[in-house]
Amino acid sequence: MARKITIEPVTRVEGHGKVTIHLDDRGKVTQSRFHIVEFRGFERFVQGRPYWEAPVLVQRLCGICPVSHHLAAAKAMDVVVGVGPGALTPTAEKMRRLMHYGQMLQSHALHFFYLSSPDFLLGMDADPAVRNVIGVIAANRDLAVRGVLLRKFGQEIILATAGKKIHGTGAVPGGVNKNLTPEERDRFLKGPDPLNAGRMIEWAQAAIGVFKDYHRRNRETVDGFAPFPSNHLSLVRKDGALDFYHGVLRAVDADGHKVLDDVDYRDYLEYVGEEIRPWSYMKFPYLRSLGKAAGWYRVGPLARLNTCDYIPSTLAQKEFEAYKAYTDGKPNNMSLHSHWARLIELLHAAEVIKELLGDKDLQGTKLVKTGKRTAEGVGLIEAPRGTLFHHYRVSADDQITMANLIVSTTNNNEPMNRAVHWVAEHALSEKPEITEGMLNRVEVAIRAYDPCLSCATHALGRMPLEVTLCDPNGRVLEKKIR
Amino acid sequence: MRSKRQGPRKEDPVAGRETKPRRVLVLGIGNPGRGDDGLGAAAVERLESRRLPGVTCDANYQLNIEDALACSRHDLVVFVDAARGLRVPFLWNEVRPEAAGPALTHTLGPGAVVGLCAALYGRTPEARVLAIRGHRWGVGEGLSPRAAANLGRAVRFLESFLKRAAGKESRS
Asked: Which residues in A lie closer than 8 A to residue B33 (C-beta atoms)?
């Protein structure tokens, strides 16, 4: 008898999504889909608003990565006020970088320690009642405390640079509205212990060690879980270095050949298209040069470490070299290695934060620049989850007339669907019984991409995971709720 | 949104040792962009202007696991949140430590945060919750007139309580 499995909501991700898996009479998977069932609508909401409100308004998309939206919108509006990429004052540029790397630190810490580590430390088949961060606290209290404090440190950096931990106002079109006081700098550099930059670097290194240790003991599971070839896209610095704040677009294929290189992101529409499919609110982006079928790509930590040539900080570069050596320098297409890549980025973010804190430009007083007003601006940034596109048009009376956002998770839409399909085929297909552990593997595949499904109202963890088995006529045969 | 005022140290007349005034944290919860859901933040803002000694104020959209760190560093924590369905302008309750469930964001309650203080940092502060009745929850900033009136009463009560609480001593 044909069956349909629904996983809704997907847990330990931000926002609301569901998975449907269709099985035929023999239990063989015939179709799988990862649906995003929330409608965002921000592109429409901001129309008619004054352009200078955009950096504050659009960050309401998300309570987890608002800084990324804040900065991408600010970068776009820099162009509108005539301050193009690279033309900010040194203080403004570095304050924004500090804010962004603080965001990267807290978001990556949140993802690894709160969302993903339960699968590694407690096992994918562990009781879901304990397979969460509370279970991690019980299993390894010191590790849990470090995760909490890494996230807190990142949030404190955001507070100092953006004015608030969530939905700050630090970046304005053409610059920033505050600098970093010497007292704030000293607090981050010198304590109070353990909340200082040096300790964060140590703990980020230790977190990489946790992953490596798990990898050593579970190599087949990690390497063999949802590996599939893809293109990879990200910003890189002009010289090929990893850069989360600014750069040029680069894309490589599964073998590492450059599909895009040194592309000015303001021309993104020439290179990136978006396909609409009727069963999801989320679009499917693709590289125009490769077409809809072959042009889909990954973004995020895995993609960034595949596109960049090196990491411009000492300790992270050393880890990057070991990471690259594992695949003989070729692109890494193993989904669970995105956690490894994320932790290397965590270390890099901690190193950059420490370096920036020592820069006297952060105490500068030239905060904002203006130039010749333009009618259109594009801002791109490497958000924790991947490349984030913001594009606006502004009327002569300063109102936003058009907004187009391609958020990181949208860029990963096709890869997440591929990962779900891989698990459905390999873990669920033709199995006599569907266990909770099998369903968790579907979620593990999605979690590797750290999706942020435009959360605002949905409660994580306490929402039931509902699995419904239906016959071909939609009649409910069996229902499991956890 | 944070502020801190230090109270004076003094000698414990019984034990003959130096004691410290109680460290009090007032933590407002809620989204000021959703009407009366901003009651927690509004209460904290109003309280900050009173500059009470020994009282630290903070506010956020929701409670997070990391809030347990700040809570564990205080002797008394007061959570201030908006509430639906109350029959009175505000409600004042003790918070008992709870075992946190699998919730990660959005649903972490005061009891779970206090429970995490013990689990993560080995210290459990005394805790209270001040629930203020809200009436309007739509998109948009600003409190409804009835919620604003409830806020005034609740903050007067809280201020009075904190003045008494700050006078007590911590021996931790």
From this structure: 60
